[in-house]
Amino acid sequence: ALVAAEEAVGLFRETAFSCEVYATHLRDLEVGFLARARPGRIGVGLQSFNPQALALMGRPFDDARFLEGMARLADVAPTTVEIILGLPGETRATIEESIKFAREMDCETIQVSLASPYPGTELFEYVTKNGYLAIDPFLDESGYQKCTIKYPGLTSDEIYQWLTVEDIQRVAGFLRPTYDRTDGQDGFVSLDQKVP
């Protein structure tokens, strides 16, 4: 319906927008639409490269199809790969693997966020049932999100450290070419957290 509406009205040719896609399920129809509409940025939800975490979330994943989808999207618009830290089954090794995998992709930026087990969600039920809810409330006294999940061998503080200090150090070199190529207009790092 969106493709037909765009063909009839042409709204997106005159309106700046960004969008989110799941690269593993990308079809020619969506790629063609995005190529005509020219979004300013395409967010691509990888979440994790950990098969256990993805299975626990009910997210099918095929790395070859994902990489193919990313290559197709890179020809359409700047892409941001989105990773979530603290998903079920996460370990230091799986965090490293997900970030390494994201860094090897053809994308402009990487966005890293914390898993948020909100009440009423499957993630909340999972971490509560298994004793993985580390702290409550979700926000500190200043309104910043905390890492509220812990797993055996991985504390909430370690997950938070990945998001802040270590991730910035690892990503800085990756983002620098984009920052230089765009005269400082892109290649930025954005945090929703305070650095301790």
Task: Please give the structural blueprint.
Layout: H1 2-9, H2 11-14, E1 18-21, H3 28-37, E2 41-47, H4 51-56, H5 63-74, E3 79-85, H6 92-103, E4 109-114, H7 122-129, H8 156-181
Kindly describe this structure.
The chain has a four-stranded parallel sheet with strand order 1-2-3-4. The chain is 44% helix and 12% strand. It contains eight helices and four strands, in the order ααβαβααβαβαα. It has 196 residues and is an alpha/beta fold.
Parts with pLDDT < 50 across at least 5 consecutive residues: 189-196
Percent of residues in helices comes to 40-55%
Molecular shape: globular
Distance between the termini: 47 Å
Portion of residues in beta strands equals: 5-15%
Assembly form of the protein: single chain
Number of strands: 4
- Strands of the widest sheet, in order across it, are 1-2-3-4
Radius of gyration: 18 Å
Secondary-structure class: alpha/beta
Q: What is the number of helices?
A: 8
H/E element sequence: HHEHEHHEHEHH
Mean pLDDT: 79
